[in-house]
Design a protein that fits this description.
Strand content: 15-25%
EC number: 3.4.21.53
Number of strands: 33
Organism: Shewanella decolorationis S12
Enzyme class: hydrolase
Largest sheet: 8 strands, mixed
Structural class: alpha/beta
InterPro entries: AAA_32, Lon-like_helical, Lon_proteolytic, Lon_Prtase, LonB_AAA-LID, P-loop_NTPase, Ribosomal_Su5_D2-typ_SF, Ribsml_uS5_D2-typ_fold_subgr
Keywords: Coiled coil, Hydrolase, Protease, Serine protease
Length: 803
């Protein structure tokens, strides 16, 4: 068994609170106005090194998962670092979608030099506006009409010549040939200059009538041949006219396209697109010549400009002058991340095309970094799978979500994928990280770098000076009043209280920023030119006032006597333990009465909280540990002939944690020895099987809770709290408690073993071993606490034997 110390250590007021002296700041520095703002987030060197490592590797899979609680400044640190980050190999491009002239359902991607996408789009728009005017003019002039008229006349002459020749031949055979405008024809046998009537034709001989019929049949055959010939001539005329039109249009197009082709001669993809556009315009001249009104109307159905939709350039990403795109996606839905295709309605008809493709965050971040919240990504359907697919393939495939999830074969576009080169930074907590590692085998392959953000940093003179610069950066970023030296020191002390450690500073930058904002408000309300210590104190007081309704209600129960507590007397088997109650935005301490009573039994400690299922597993473990300790000190040679009943009085909502195990042990020893416990002292701390005191959480709140109850029930100079010695470094107590300790009006003792608490609470040495012939024996001194308890147990054992 470890050596047991003899006395509890009374703490001085200097041990209860560590003031900030700002020794590393020069005496001339009197406010944050004289401090250089910190460009980095303070205390996150490990996370920053991880980010620098990931950003330096171009290979696939080196994306970043930033781990840490909300408020640590993860996003701020990332953005500050990335804004200074110089890419190793900047490879930014503008991305455009244009029509695929071979397959309009599969729009093509154009990759342009960064910053030239909008310029190219405007060049095409200007070209189209010129062509919309120039092409109709090329077909609306005397030269064109003369050439067209000449071709038309040549056709007409050929047709008329053929018909005239046939008419002459018919006339020679006494047959009249007449044609109507509708293309109908009529052949009539002539009687001299006049057509035969029925009488005159019937007067002819059979041979004459047969000759007429034979001649007419022959002429009809020749006429059909002439009609076929006319059709061929008309086709030849149409082809010739088309060639003429195309040549006219080609001359116009070559004139207008040549400067654009020369401008983009070093970009083969763009030149190929311009060549394809030129050929397509020749095939669709009617769009420009307004020959089909319906087709023309649909071709121009645009909300933007008077130009054919078919030849628009849809710039979905234009880098502008930025050298490294940094995109923060606040709401990562499937469409906002991967883009989507809109639909348009014209005259009741719904249609879509490449010009309605819209970019997502991944398009905008291509070549740079995309920052998102991990939980938001996982909450939205299909987003996580889509993101993994894009990162694995390194392609951005803008597929329709509706097509992915629908069983129907909806017609939609299938745009050409865009090459993807992006770093993804996910922000999340440890639980989400562990779940992804456990349940998604792809996660560790795609997010190989973990940026683990610290909650606290060491508090030294150097780090306090660095923290002061961090405060200065918040003041400058938010355009606040400057903090004077006393306000800086108070905020650093508040940070140490938040860290629950005199030797640490909290890195929850959101809490510091909020405190500064509220202090700034208080300073302005007081018409001050600077934020001073009193304004910080007022802001902290206001914060506590807003969130302390539950604490005030509980304290009221001590005032009106609803909750029973004794802070003055001595009582057997009754002790004041300390606990912490936490809400979502506040935690505070209150004392709890623990009682223990004994009855004849088999050495068991019956935990009433556990029996009624109000005790948590950690609390039950603590009770079993103290039971083992009691057996080791009072039942080594014989079973303890008592059963102890242990409970938290007036506890109705459940108990967990082992921070009351020392208090419970003292209550049981008091019940066994029948020695009264001091009620003016409260105790907190857990213990191991050897009785050693172990540190607990919330020590500041627990001490403050008991101090406040003592004020309610009546103060006395003997009151105080016992804490584990290992919790001394966690003390950052309120100023009124520090002053009370300084004036001897309140006490805080630190112990390393439960017997020290027993000595203090019971007024006797707890475990003094007897000596025999100058040698220490295993028997306790009958005047010590364990000796008195041992005597009572031995008496019970003897009584049990006689019965």
């Amino acid at each position: 068994m470890p050596t047991v110390p003899t006395a509890a250590i009374p703490l001085t007021s200097q041990q209860l609170y560590r003031k900030s002296d700002l020794k590393q700041l020069s005496p001339e520095c009197q406010s944050t106005a004289q401090l250089t703002p910190l460009d980095d987030i303070v205390g996150q060197e490990r996370a920053q090194q991880a980010v620098e490592f990931a950003m330096g590797i171009k290979e696939k899979g080196y994306n970043i998962y930033a781990i840490g609680q909300n408020g640590l400044g993860k996003r701020t640190m990332m953005l500050r670092y990335l804004n200074r980050h110089e890419p190793i190999e900047p490879a930014l491009f503008d991305w455009c979608y244009v029509v695929n002239f071979d397959d309009t359902r599969s729009p093509k991607v154009l990759k342009l030099t960064a910053g030239t996408g909008l310029e190219f789009k405007k060049s095409i728009e200007k070209l189209m506006l010129k062509l919309v005017k120039a092409l109709p003019l090329a077909f609306d002039n005397e030269m064109y009409y003369a050439r067209a008229e000449k071709l038309k006349n040549q056709l007409t002459q050929k047709q008329e010549a053929a018909l005239t020749e046939l008419s002459e031949e018919a006339k020679q055979k006494n047959i009249s040939l007449s044609l109507t405008l509708q293309g109908d024809y009529q052949m009539v046998a002539l009687n001299g200059e006049e057509p035969h009537d029925e009488i005159s034709f019937g007067a002819l001989t059979e041979a004459e009538r047969a000759q007429f019929e034979s001649n007419i049949n022959g002429l009809e055959v020749k006429l059909r041949g002439i009609i076929r010939q006319n059709t061929e001539w008309e086709e030849e005329f149409s082809d010739t006219q088309q060639e003429h039109d195309e040549q006219v249009a080609k001359d116009v197009l070559v004139h207008f396209f040549k400067p654009l082709k020369d401008k983009y001669k070093h970009q083969p993809e763009v030149r190929a697109f311009l060549t394809g556009m030129q050929a397509d315009i020749l095939s669709n001249l009617d769009i420009f010549l307004e020959e089909s009104e319906e087709q023309l109307a649909l071709a121009y159905a645009s909300l933007e400009k008077k130009m054919p939709r078919r030849y628009q350039v849809n710039v979905i990403v234009c880098q502008g002058e930025q050298t490294f795109p940094i995109v923060v996606e606040e709401s990562p839905s499937y469409h906002s991340l991967f883009g989507y295709v809109e639909n348009a309605t014209f005259r009741g008809t719904v249609f879509t095309d490449f010009s309605l493709i819209r970019a997502g965050s991944l398009h905008k971040a291509n070549g740079g970094v995309l920052l998102m919240d991990a939980i938001k990504v996982l909450e939205r359907p299909y987003v996580w799978d889509g993101l993994k697919r894009a990162l694995r393939s390194r392609k951005l495939d803008l597929s329709s979500l509706e097509r992915e999830v629908s069983l129907s074969g909806t017609i939609s576009l299938a745009p050409e994928p865009i090459p993807l080169d992006v770093k993804i930074i996910l922000f999340g907590d440890h639980e989400t990280y562990q779940l992804l590692q456990l349940y998604d085998p792809d996660f560790s392959e795609l997010f190989r770098v973990t940026a683990d953000f610290e909650d606290v940093m060491d508090r030294t003179d150097v780090s306090e000076a660095q923290y002061a610069r961090f405060i200065s950066s918040i003041v400058h970023d938010n355009n606040m009043l400057h903090c004077d030296r006393s306000a800086i020191a108070r905020i650093i002390e508040y940070s140490s209280r938040e860290a629950q450690d005199q030797q640490k500073l909290s890195l929850h930058s959101a809490n510091i920023a909020n405190l500064l904002r509220e202090s700034n408000f208080c300073a302005k309300a007081a018409a001050s030119l600077r934020i001073e210590k009193q304004h910080v104190e007022q802001a902290l007081k206001n914060q506590e006032q807003r969130v302390s309704r539950l604490r005030d209600n509980i304290m009221e129960s001590f005032i009106n006597g609803t909750t029973l507590i004794n802070t003055h007397d001595k009582v057997v088997g009754q002790i004041n333990a300390l606990s912490v109650i936490s809400t979502s935005d506040h935690q505070f301490g209150i004392p709890n009465r623990i009682t223990a009573i004994t009855a004849f039994g088999k050495g068991e400690v019956l935990d009433i909280e556990h029996r009624v299922k109000l005790g948590g597993r950690i609390h039950s473990k603590g009770v079993l540990i103290l039971t083992a300790y009691l057996a080791s000190v009072l039942g080594k040679t014989a079973q303890i002939p008592l059963t102890t009943y242990l409970t938290f009085e007036q506890s109705y909502s459940g108990v967990d944690g082992d921070s009351a195990s020392m208090a419970e042990c003292c209550a049981i020893i008091s019940a066994i020895s029948e020695l009264p416990l001091r009620q003016d002292i409260a105790i907190t701390g857990s213990m191991n099987q050897f009785g050693e005191a172990q540190p607990i959480g919330g020590v500041n709140e627990k001490i403050e809770g008991f101090f406040d109850v003592c004020k309610i029930k009546g103060r006395s100079s003997s009151q105080g709290v016992i804490i584990p010695e290992s919790n001394i470094a966690n003390l950052m107590l309120r100023q009124d408690i520090v002053e009370a300790v300084e004036h001897g009006e309140f006490h805080i003792w630190a112990i390393s073993h439960v017997t020290q608490a027993m000595t203090l609470l019971l007024g006797k040495a707890a475990a003094t071993l007897q000596t025999h012939n100058s040698k220490t024996t295993d028997n306790y001194d009958p005047e010590c606490v364990f000796g008195i308890a041992q005597q009572k147990l031995n008496a019970l054992r003897a009584l049990a034997k006689t019965n």
